[in-house]
Amino acid sequence: MIAFDEKAFYDRIGAINGWEFNSVRSVTEGAAWDYGAKVREWSKPTDVLLDIGTGGGETLLPLAQAVRLAIGIDRSPGMIETARRHAARSSVRHVRFACMDAEELAFPDGLFDAVICRHAPFAAGEAARVLTDGGVFITQQVSERDKWNVKEAFGRGQAYGEPNGTLMRRCAGQLKEAGFTEIHCDEYDAAEYLGGAEDLLFLLKHTPIIPSFGEIEGDAERFERFIAANGTERGIRTNSARFLIMARR
Fold it and tell me: Which range (78-92, 183-197, 226-240) has the least confidence?
């Protein structure tokens, strides 16, 4: 098994396109919420908002219009370079990006009214420290069973073999220990249909669903067998599993 260098992977993808997946054709059925709508529901026009693990800024830029100031951070310089390019091409002006580690936020105590984090690691204590009293924290993360049939086909994958719900319970426990209250958890496991083989190939090359995809002998054959076994009239069948936690400081 080839060791997976997560940081190098994120730096490489960040320099290419951030987390921009608009080219991927997919339809998800049964998603219980929309992440952007949840953030808007819990935030106010006067808020200063921090986005941890902002990637290429694709999620933050539309949300920035709903708050007074939005700041996106990411540990990958490549991601931040891409986010700044995206911001420069947009009409959003009250947004800033910085390269920073989530475990050591270079911000004063109580600066933010809202802290959000989508599909990225966070440190509950640091999130609590930079939030105002009564501030909100919202995170959406990928559940263990996401793309389950893909992982089974390859015999490996992100969080492969871990019981579903482990990460959600761990995150909720860390938030409670950090002093958060009103902790609300939700999750869904929705059907997802990818447009074709090229869409799945893009995902496997640009996300850590299958670590070291293409670098291990037999991956090409596993990919072809998966396409043959899961092709339907609607597209290539898989699943999208997510959990959401909303908490107050």
Answer: 78-92
Closest CA to 51 of 34, 29, 36, 32: 36
Residues in the chain: 249
Contact by Cβ (8 Å): 158, 211: yes
Task: Specify burial of residue 71 (Cβ count, 10 A radius: 0-12, 13-18, 19+).
Answer: buried
Predicted TM-score of the model (pTM) = 0.89
DSSP-based helix, strand, coil % in the chain, nearest 5: 35, 30, 40
Per residue in 24-45, pLDDT (tens digit) is: 899 999 999 999 999 999 999 9
142's tokens: 């990928």
Residues ≥6 apart with Cβ < 8 Å to 12:
78
All residues at 6 or more sequence positions from 229 whose CB lies less than 8 Å from its CB, including other chains? 153
- Residue 106 phi, psi dihedral angles, 5° rounding: -90, 55
| Greatest alpha-carbon span in the chain | 54
Residue from 217, 198, 195 nearest 206 by CA = 198
Separation between Cα atoms, residue 56 and residue 48, nearest integer Å: 19
- Write out pLDDT tens, residues 40-64: 999 999 999 999 999 999 999 999 9
Q: What's phi and psi for 150, nearest 5 deg?
A: -65, -45
Q: How is residue 163 annotated by DSSP?
A: P
User: What's the pLDDT score for residue 9?
Assistant: 44
